[in-house]
Amino acid sequence: MVVHLFGATSSPRCANFCLRKTTQDCTGHFSDEAIKTVLQNFYVDDCLKSVNSVRNGVTLVKELQGPLESGGFHISNLISNIHEVMNSIPVSDRAKEVKDLDFDYYTLPTERALGIQWCVNSDIFQFRLDFNKKPPTRRGILSMVKQRT
User: Fold this and answer.
1) For a Cys-Cys bond, which of 45, 65, 82, 140 suits 134, CB 3.0-4.6 Å?
2) For position 129, what pLDDT does the model report?
3) Could you give the number of structural domains in the chain?
4) What is the DSSP string of 47-104?
5) Residue 67 placed within a domain
6) pLDDT (tens digit, 0 to 9) for every residue of the chain, 149 residues total?
7) Rg, Å, the chain Cα set
8) CB 142 within 8 Å of CB 128
9) Domain assignment of residue 71, given as a range
10) What ranges in 7-53 are assigned the alpha helix state H?
11) What's the predicted TM-score (pTM) here?
12) Alpha-carbon distance 35 to 67, whole Å?
């Protein structure tokens, strides 16, 4: 199969399978850290990864491009809470909210990641609940939590 129609219930699983299969086929051709990151830190098309230094962040962003591009994937919409890492990412590959942002003067925005809010500037996850849409009953609260995850 060359093309998959997205929007089906199985689409996220198919995308994840293709990403993993492409990466497994590249084992030995690219860095072990890049391969491990794709296999363990991607959920459908979101990658959440924490590294222990700026140098490792810059290196990982560059190394991730290799195995993904070998399968026809282009990594984009990148964002990091470290300004040096963001400066190393080409503007065309940055998340749209930070493409024109001057990191020396502005704070980074809040992004959605895996159905929750990530405050990029403070590097914390948070939930946004709108209690006006549902009644404050057990059923109403449960339905709000299920919608967000």
Assistant:
1) 140
2) 65
3) 1
4) E----SSHHHHHHHHHHHHHHHHHTT----SB--SSHHHHHHS-GGGB-GGGTT--TT
5) yes
6) 567 677 778 888 888 888 889 888 888 899 899 999 989 988 877 888 889 999 999 999 999 888 888 888 888 888 888 888 888 888 888 887 777 776 666 677 777 776 778 887 788 887 776 666 777 788 877 776 655 44
7) 18
8) no
9) 1-75
10) 11-25, 32-41
11) 0.69
12) 7
Among 53, 48, 49, 44, residue whose Cα is nearest residue 20:
44
Q: How many residues are there in the chain?
A: 149
**Burial class of residue 82 in the structure, from the number of CB atoms within 10 Å of its CB (0-12 exposed, 13-18 middle, 19+ buried):** middle
Name all contacts of 101-106 with Cβ < 8 Å and 24+ positions apart.
none
Sign of CA dihedral 56, 62, 66, 71: positive
Question: Per the structure block, which two tokens stand in for 92?
Answer: 């065309």
Which of the 8 DSSP states describes residue 68? H
Q: What is the DSSP letter of 59?
A: H
Euclidean distance between CA atoms 101 and 86, whole angstroms? 10
43 found inside a domain: yes
Residue 91 lies in a domain: no
Q: Is 34 exposed, middle or buried (0-12, 13-18, 19+ CB in 10 A)?
A: buried
Structure tokens given for 127: 């939930």
